């Protein structure tokens, strides 16, 4: 089964159960890769439907202070893409949730576009999110990902105009990632203020599932946003627990994951 097929199967399963998907995020290497592996397994057991693994980068332009600090800690530990792909290979058989890598473009470019996609797919990754890669410059990576069945998942924002949104969703695979706010991750803005209109535009442009992320931190917020989409992404709230509890963060992260998924079972 390719990565695209794995993600499709997950959304079909969630839809059949009349639930909304929970996508959780963890920064690889924070506080260390061994703990990251345990966190991934813990989130999977607690109900995460899809798990995003962030590749730390020194200039994470889409991320707020919480994930910026996590990236800095991970880089200080020497975390790098080859080690993260080894981690994916180690945990893939232990989890049900598809694993999606989130990376800024430069680490992938330095690795080699085709080489990265091939190694990521061989390691067991199902998809790839590159938040700083504009559609106009994504052709080569789209081709590389397509060759190995890796889903390249695009982001759209409230500021994306309709013509551009149509072009982005036409090239999308597996699902569309909708940014709920005009800002960075972890900001406490009104997360339902713009997602309603954005979701209407995405629904008109594609039949792919859409998930919403940025600024969702609690079960209550997840329920409000889930009304307009097929799933929600929670990142900074979980990373903040890792920052607070470090190697002892498994149970706090599992608890929040469990609460979030429970809220999405009957949103």
From TrEMBL:
Gene3D superfamilies: Aldolase class I. Its EC number is 4.2.1.20. Pfam families: Trp_syntA. It comes from the Bacteria. This is Tryptophan synthase alpha chain. The active site is at residues 52, 63. CDD domains: Tryptophan_synthase_alpha (cd04724). The alpha subunit is responsible for the aldol cleavage of indoleglycerol phosphate to indole and glyceraldehyde 3-phosphate. Keywords: Amino-acid biosynthesis, Aromatic amino acid biosynthesis, Lyase, Tryptophan biosynthesis. InterPro entries: Aldolase_TIM, RibuloseP-bd_barrel, Trp_synthase_suA. GO terms for cellular component: cytosol. It comes from Desulforamulus reducens (strain ATCC BAA-1160 / DSM 100696 / MI-1). Tetramer of two alpha and two beta chains.
């Amino acid at each position: 089964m390719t990565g695209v097929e794995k993600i499709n199967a997950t959304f079909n399963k969630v839809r059949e159960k009349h639930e909304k998907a929970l996508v959780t995020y963890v920064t690889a290497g924070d506080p260390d890769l061994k703990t990251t592996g345990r966190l991934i397994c813990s989130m999977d057991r607690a109900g995460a439907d899809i798990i995003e693994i962030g590749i730390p980068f020194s200039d994470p332009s889409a991320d707020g202070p919480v994930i910026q600090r996590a990236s800095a800690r991970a880089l200080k530990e020497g975390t790098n893409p080859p080690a993260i792909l080894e981690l994916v290979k180690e945990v893939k058989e232990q989890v049900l949730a598809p694993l999606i890598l989130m990376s800024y473009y430069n680490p992938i470019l330095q690795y080699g576009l085709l080489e990265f996609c091939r190694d990521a797919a061989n390691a067991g990754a199902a998809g790839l999110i590159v938040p700083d890669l504009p559609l106009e410059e994504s052709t080569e990576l789209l081709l590389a990902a397509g060759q190995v069945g890796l889903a390249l998942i695009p982001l759209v924002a409230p500021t994306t105009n309709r013509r551009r949104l149509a072009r982005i969703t036409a090239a999308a695979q597996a699902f569309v990632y909708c940014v709920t706010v005009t800002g960075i991750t972890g900001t406490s803005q009104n997360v339902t203020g713009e997602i309603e209109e954005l979701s209407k535009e995405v629904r008109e442009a594609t039949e792919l599932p859409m998930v919403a992320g940025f600024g969702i931190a609690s079960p209550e917020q997840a329920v409000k946003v889930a009304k307009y989409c097929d799933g929600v992404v929670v990142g900074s709230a979980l990373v903040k627990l890792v920052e607070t509890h470090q190697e002892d963060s498994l149970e706090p992260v599992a608890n929040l994951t469990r609460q979030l998924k429970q809220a999405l079972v009957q949103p």
